[in-house]
Each structure stands twice: as structure tokens, then as C-alpha cells.
Design brief:
Blueprint (H helix, E strand, L loop, with lengths): L8 H19 L4 H8 L3 H8 L7 H10 L4 H15 L13 H12 L2 E6 L10 H10 L5 H14 L10 E7 L1 H4 L5 H14 L5 E6 L13 E5 L8 E6 L2 E5 L2 H17 L6 H11 L1
Parallel strand pairs: 1-2, 2-3
Antiparallel strand pairs: 1-4, 4-5, 5-6
Helix pairs in contact: 1-5, 1-6, 2-3, 4-5, 7-8, 10-12
């Protein structure tokens, strides 16, 4: 997966699993033709599976894992991931308002154990109040009231992730600009800042502010997110959004560049322990 601008939720997970399946085939010394003979299919079917073109048939996957010599415990994990990937996520209900390129993001968010992000423009969606989300969407390109309502509802439902049984660790570096730009009415921003302060009490939420005093840093290229997953079979994924879509990256060198940049930005930003006091100061000015 190098650039998936229009990938949907199912495709994103299967793309990761497809790469793993390819690695297993290569490690087992099997060619496309060898694998195809195992399933009595054309070699093109194996190529399509490894490229995540369409849903996978579970019996096919089980046969290949056995032939590739995958240990039983690892195969069980892999099969569970395939079953999950074959199912539409809960966000499928919002497909009328969800851009196809963003459904992949939601699927990664749901599956991640660690989400790191740099946000220079907005409060991250998982941390937004409903009023803030609605105000931002209305100030954007969304003038359709029903579409805005649907997107706000989706955003609020995504936030259940943070209070669920196994929430991911969310570690955000947010530019001070986000809190200074008059994008929403002061009352909305005050409530939003209050919400951020409340969320700091959650042990799995870390927030760092990049102050104006830091004039130059690597996040100046734009926002990005990095996802890590609880299974070794799935590599880290970096997500970069742009005006017309998004790019998902899982090549090691690409993701490492983002991780190292974010590490350096964390060292430049105010420490996590200072976030509450900084937000309280902002709150007094609103």
C-alpha cells in the first residue's frame, strides 16, 4: 500500500493483509503458479488476493496459510483479521456522507492501539465537541445542512472509541494556531477548550501544544497521522490528507520519516504535563 486515495475501509485492511500473505508465500518459496495450483485457480486470483482486489474467501486463505507453513496460533490471528476485514464497519451506515477515501481512516482508527497525530488547523476529530464540529464543517465547504448533521453524527460516534473497553493511546501535537484562529464563536471555543482539559484526565490521551515561539518545525508541511496496531502482521500506517483525498503509506522508510519527524516535534512542543495550564490560560483569554 503506497498510495490509496480512494480506498475504502475493507480495502485498507485487506491491503495490509495482502502484503503479509505475499511475504508468507515468498518466504515459503512458492510462486504465484504454485499457490494457484493449491486452490485450483488461475495465478491471477493469487495476485488479486495479494493486492486486496475484492473480498477474500476464507477457505482459500486457510489453505494457503497451511501450505505456507504458518504456525497455528499465527494462522488463527490472521484468519480473525481476514474475517474482520471482510465485514463492513459500523461507519458503513454513514456512507451517504462519508468520502470514500476517509472510510479507510475510520477503519484504521478503529483497529489501532496507538494513534499519533500532528494537527495545525483544527481540534482533532476525536477530541471535538459537537458544536465545534458543526461550526467547523459549516465554515468549510459543506453548506448542505443534512450532510453536516450526518458528518457531525459520524464524528461523535467515532469518539466512543476513547471511552470504550480498549481505547487506543492517542498522542496529539497540536499547533497553538488551532486555539487562536477565530474559526468558531468564542463560546464554542471556550466549551471546546473545557472539553480538552477534561480529556487530559484520560490516561490514554496525551496532548502537546506547539507554541508560536517554535517558528520552524517539520509539521509545517501539513497535518498527518500515524497508526500502530496490536498485531505484528499489520505494519504502521501513515495518513496524509489533501484537498481532494488522502494517501495511506505503509512502506517502512515512508512511515519512519513521519515517525522521526513527529518525535522531533514532540521534543520541540510543550511537554504533556504543561497542556492543562496552557489550555487554562487560553480559556481565560476567550
Amino acid at each position: 500500500m503506497t498510495a490509496a486515495q480512494s480506498a475504502n475501509a475493507t480495502t485498507i485492511r485487506l491491503m495490509v493483509l495482502g502484503r503479509r500473505l505475499r511475504d508468507l508465500r515468498v518466504a515459503a518459496g512458492r510462486s504465484f503458479e504454485d499457490a494457484a495450483l493449491l486452490l485450483d485457480v488461475a495465478p491471477l486470483t493469487i495476485r488479486r488476493m495479494e493486492l486486496a482486489r475484492g473480498r477474500w474467501k476464507l477457505p482459500y486463505v486457510r489453505t494457503l496459510l497451511e501450505a505456507y507453513g504458518v504456525p497455528d496460533d499465527e494462522a488463527r490471528v490472521f484468519m480473525d483479521l481476514v474475517r474482520e476485514a471482510n465485514q463492513p464497519g459500523w461507519w458503513h451506515r454513514y456512507r451517504d456522507a462519508l468520502p470514500s477515501w476517509f472510510s479507510g481512516y475510520v477503519s484504521l482508527e478503529e483497529a489501532a492501539s496507538l494513534i499519533r497525530a500532528y494537527e495545525p488547523h483544527y481540534i482533532p476529530g476525536l477530541l471535538q465537541t459537537e458544536d465545534y464540529a458543526r461550526a467547523v464543517l459549516r465554515r468549510g465547504v459543506h453548506d448542505n445542512v443534512r450532510e453536516v448533521d450526518r458528518r457531525v453524527a459520524l464524528r461523535m460516534e467515532r469518539q466512543r472509541l476513547l471511552t470504550g473497553a480498549r481505547p487506543p493511546e492517542l498522542w496529539v501535537v497540536m499547533d497553538e494556531t488551532v486555539l487562536r484562529r477565530p474559526m468558531v464563536p468564542p463560546a464554542v471555543l471556550r466549551a471546546q477548550v473545557d472539553r480538552l482539559i477534561e480529556l487530559l484526565d484520560l490516561p490514554h490521551v496525551k496532548l502537546q501544544i506547539m507554541p508560536f515561539e517554535v517558528c520552524a518545525h517539520e509539521g509545517m508541511y501539513g497535518p498527518f497521522h500515524i497508526f500502530r496496531f496490536p498485531h505484528e502482521e499489520i505494519s504502521d500506517v501513515a495518513y496524509v490528507e489533501n484537498l481532494v483525498g488522502a494517501v495511506y503509506l505503509d512502506e517502512y522508510d515512508d512511515v519512519t520519516n513521519f515517525q522521526e519527524a513527529l518525535d522531533r516535534m514532540c521534543a520541540q512542543a510543550l511537554p504533556v504535563r504543561s497542556a492543562g495550564a496552557f489550555l487554562a490560560g487560553i480559556r481565560k483569554e476567550l
